[in-house]
Every structure is written in structure tokens, then in C-alpha cells.
Design goal:
By secondary structure, this protein is mainly alpha-helical. The chain has helices spanning about 5-25, 30-40, 40-55, 70-100; strands spanning about 60, 65-70. It has a single domain, classed as Arc Repressor Mutant, subunit A (Orthogonal Bundle), CATH 1.10.10. Strands 1-2 form a two-stranded antiparallel ribbon. Strand 1 and strand 2 (about 65-70) form a beta hairpin.
Length: about 110
């Protein structure tokens, strides 16, 4: 996978995670909520939402509310799992070189 494509996939995963986190805090999640949370422009979030919708990871209601689909939830779980593995590997490498313990922050799982 090319670097640019990898970064784009990572970005979509960040959007999915943000939508999930916001949905636990808010009764409904809109694009503006995502833009505010990530400090991104509304047009950038609009493009990302369109991409997520076209890939089947989210649905958008007539009112503009964002909801993760089952595929979106699955991708988010896989994303969190791989991030945890990368973090653990990184911690082990740092711990070996500096003898500093690493801790993992628990991510919300749904």
C-alpha cells in the first residue's frame, strides 16, 4: 500500500473513532460535531463523510445525523487493535533502550 493511501485509510479510521466517541457523549452526531472535535474545516469533514458513506462505513440520516454501520464498527475495532499492537511494540523498543515502563490507555470498545 502506498504511503498516501495508507495515510488516507488512517484518516478515515480517525473519523470513525471520532464518530463513535462523540456518539457516546452526544445524543446525535453531526458533521459539524466531528469538525469541531477534530478542529478540521467543515468542507474537509464533508468530503470524509461522503467517502465513509460511499464505502458503507456510516449512514447519514435525512437530518444529517451520522451513524456507524456494522462494517464501520468492525473497521474501527480492527484499527484500535492494530494501533494497540504498534503501541506495545513501540513501548517495548523504548523500554529496552531506556528501561522506562510504558502504559497503554484503554480505548472505548463497542
Amino acid at each position: 500500500m502506498s504511503y498516501i493511501r495508507h495515510k488516507a485509510e488512517e484518516s478515515l479510521e480517525d473519523y470513525l473513532e471520532t464518530i463513535l466517541i462523540l456518539s457516546s457523549r452526544l445524543s446525535v452526531v453531526r458533521s459539524i460535531d466531528v469538525a469541531t472535535e477534530l478542529n478540521f474545516s467543515k468542507p474537509s469533514v464533508s468530503v470524509a463523510v461522503k467517502n465513509l458513506k460511499n464505502r458503507g462505513y456510516i449512514t447519514v440520516s435525512e437530518e444529517g445525523y451520522l451513524h456507524l454501520t456494522e462494517d464501520g464498527r468492525t473497521l474501527r475495532r480492527i484499527s484500535c487493535f492494530t494501533r494497540r499492537i504498534r503501541f506495545r511494540i513501540s513501548c517495548r523498543m523504548k523500554s529496552r533502550s531506556r528501561s522506562i515502563p510504558c502504559t497503554i490507555t484503554r480505548l472505548p470498545v463497542s
